[in-house]
Design goal:
The protein is an alpha/beta fold and 300 residues long. It has 2 domains: 220 residues, Flavodoxin domain (Rossmann fold, 3-Layer(aba) Sandwich), CATH 3.40.50; 71 residues, no CATH class. It is 53% helix and 13% strand. The chain has a 5-stranded parallel beta sheet with strand order 2-1-3-6-7, with helices on both faces. It has a two-stranded antiparallel sheet with strand order 4-5. Strand 6, helix 6 and strand 7 form a beta-alpha-beta unit. The radius of gyration is 19 Å and the shape is globular. The structure holds flavin mononucleotide.
C-alpha cells in the first residue's frame, strides 16, 4: 500500500518553499509514496519585506507562543504515515504561523500517534525553537523521529547583517555588493534532496525509529558550540523581554529599547562574553558541551 506523506510549511520569502521542494523531490519520484504539500497562511499575513518596527514587534508573541488565526486548513487524508513540518525560527522560537499550526485542532488530530520530521530553514539559531516544537508535538501525541536544519553557514555577525538587509528590503542579494548573499546557500538548498532520500529510505523500510542517527551522519543537523553557548543564554533573556513587553502599557517604547538592547547584545556583548568563556571556562567543560551537543542533535 502507498505510504502517505504530508509536508506542511509557511514561508515569507519563498526560501522554505525551495527547501521543501528540494527535500521532497525523492518522495515525488517514488511511486510507492503519495505526497501532499500544504502551504499555510495566517488570516492576516505578516507583510514581507518587514519594516524595522514590525520586525521587532513580532518578538514578544513569537517567544510567548501566542497563536494567531490561520486561513482554514484542509487535508486530503484522515491520517498520514509521516508528517513533515517545515518551519523557520523567529526570535529563537518557532515562527508565529508555525506555533499557530501546532495549536490547530484539526492538525493536532492528524499529529496524534504519527511520526514527524522537522525541516528547519534558519539563519543559524534553531535550538530553542526546536525545544518548543518538541513540547508542542508531545502535547499533540506526535512522535518526533527526525530533524533536518539548514542554516546560513557564514559567521554569526555577518549573517545577522545580511539577514536584516534581506528581511528589511526583501532583496536576497549582496549588501553593498560586498556582503555574502543572505540565507541558506543555494547549494545547500539544492542538496536537501539527500536528506529527503534518507527519510524516504527509512519510511519505506519501516524503520523511522533509527532515522535521526542516519540524518546526523549525512550532516542534516549540526550543532556549533559557540552558537549553542549564545543561544542558550539569549533564549532565557528573550523570555524575560517578552514577558515585560506583553505586560507593559507602553509597548512601542519598550520595543525600541529591546531593539537597541538586541543590537548591542549581538554585536558587542556576545562576542566578548564568548571570547572570555572560550579562554577561561571552555577548556574545563568539554564533556558537558559534548553531552549538550548530542542532546540537540537528537530528537528526544
Ligand atoms: C522576525 C524574524 C525573526 C527571526 N529570528 C531568527 C532566529 O531567531 N534564528 C534564526 O536562525 N533565524 C531567524 N530568522 C530567519 C528565519 O528563520 C528564516 O530563515 C528567514 O526568515 C527566511 O524564511 P522564509 O522562508 O519564511 O522566508 C528570523 C526571521 C524573521 C523574519
Amino acid at each position: 500500500m502507498n505510504k502517505k506523506v504530508l509536508i506542511v510549511y509557511y514561508t515569507q520569502s519563498g526560501q522554505l518553499q525551495e527547501i521543501v521542494e528540494s527535500f521532497a523531490a525523492p518522495f515525488v519520484k517514488d511511486s510507492g509514496v503519495v505526497v501532499e504539500t500544504l502551504r499555510i497562511y495566517p488570516q492576516h499575513d505578516f507583510a514581507f519585506p518587514w519594516t524595522s518596527d514590525r520586525f521587532f514587534d513580532a518578538m514578544p508573541e513569537s517567544v510567548s507562543g501566542k497563536p494567531l488565526t490561520l486561513q482554514p486548513l484542509s487535508f486530503k487524508e484522515q491520517s498520514y504515515d509521516l508528517i513533515v513540518i517545515a518551519y523557520q525560527p523567529w526570535f529563537l522560537s518557532p515562527s508565529i504561523p508555525t506555533t499557530s499550526l501546532l495549536h490547530d485542532a484539526t492538525f493536532k488530530k492528524l499529529l496524534a500517534n504519527t511520526p514527524v520530521v522537522t525541516l528547519i530553514g534558519a539563519r543559524n539559531m534553531w535550538l530553542n525553537a526546536q525545544e518548543k516544537i518538541k513540547k508542542l508535538l508531545t502535547d499533540a501525541g506526535a512522535r518526533l523521529v527526525g530533524n533536518i536544519a539548514l542554516v546560513d553557514k557564514n559567521g554569526n555577525l555577518i549573517s545577522a547583517v545580511t539577514i536584516l538587509h534581506w528581511m528589511l528590503t526583501g532583496r536576497k542579494d549582496k549588501k553593498y555588493g560586498i556582503f555574502p548573499i543572505p540565507g541558506v546557500a543555494e547549494k545547500d538548498i539544492q542538496g536537501a534532496h539527500v536528506f529527503g532520500s534518507v527519510v524516504l529510505q527509512h519510511l519505506s523500510q519501516g524503520n523511522l525509529e533509527t532515522l535521526q542517527p542516519d540524518l546526523v551522519k549525512t550532516k542534516a543537523t549540526e550543532v556549533d558550540s559557540d552558537l549553542m553557548f549564545i543561544e542558550q543564554r539569549a533564549g532565557r533573556l528573550f523570555s524575560i523581554w517578552s514577558g515585560i513587553i506583553t505586560k507593559t502599557k507602553n509597548r512601542k517604547a519598550w520595543l525600541v529599547v529591546f531593539k537597541y538592547y538586541l543590537l548591542v547584545a549581538l554585536f558587542i556583548v556576545a562576542p566578548i562574553v564568548l571570547l572570555i568563556n572560550n579562554i577561561l571556562f571552555r577548556p574545563f567543560v568539554g564533556k558537558s558541551i559534548r553531552r549538550k551537543k548530542e542532546y540537540y542533535l537528537g530528537v528526544n
